[in-house]
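Data availability (excerpt). The following record was deposited with the supplementary files.
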Amino acid sequence: MNDFVPFAPTDAARWTTAPTGDSTKYRRGVLGIATGSDQYPGAAVLGVDAAVHTGVGMVRYVGPSRATDHVLIRRPEVVAGGGRVQAWVVGSGISASSLGELDPTTADAFAHASDDGVPVVVDAGALPLVHLGPLAVLTPHAGELAALLDVPRGSIEEDPAAAALRAAAETGSVVLLKGERTHVATPDGSVRLVASSATPWLATAGAGDVLGGVLGALVATRAAAAEASGTPLTPSDLAHLAAAAAVVHGVAARRASGGGPFPMTAVVEQLPGVVRDLVVDGDAQG
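Predicted structure:
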């Protein structure tokens, strides 16, 4: 019942969208990011930086002033403020149980992401604050999923495949369960993928922020292409994009590691090379 199909770099290559000769920044995809907080501005910086390095036409960042300042210092090409986007990333570096606990700018962004009708990547910090559904991709780790399902963390770690399937079915959203082996499932269980490209050294603070940025960029670029062809993305598409993001993230971490520890900024620096290998060679080695 819980049989998951391995997802390799050669599979990820088919879900990595390269620009063409007639591409513009809008046709390449625009990603909205509402992450970070005054307490945790680094989450916003890492996610935005990862999205830019993965490849997207434009990033619009919406967040509190301290986080915005940090983002623009790191990535001056980012546009501060809302606007039309092809996908959203929300929640990293945010902890709140209601929209009323957020700063007004972030609360407005969450409300907009909920009603925008475009795919949204939802980190655990935003799970109770945005509308879930077939165009959402949830990206919890075992502890966050345990809280969502109200079960002991040990039960998630004992059978992550079953946990991912249950969470997808109960939330009606695609679920990417982070771990040594990353499990991805659609709400109906028809797509079950597992990626194992990462290194154990990736288990560190900020890894999820980077993954969110990678996934957001892959979704936005593919959504822009789908929009141009008149074929909107499906939950199956989002599941494959989620697995592709896990592969890109994992291979970049292996390259950054070289067998040892590394900061998350080193993973970000490796992302363009991994994407290049996927779109040009159809494969990427760690």
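Summary of structural features: The beta strands are 5-6, 30-34, 58-61, 79-80, 87-90, 120-122, 136-138, 174-177, 182-185, 192-195.
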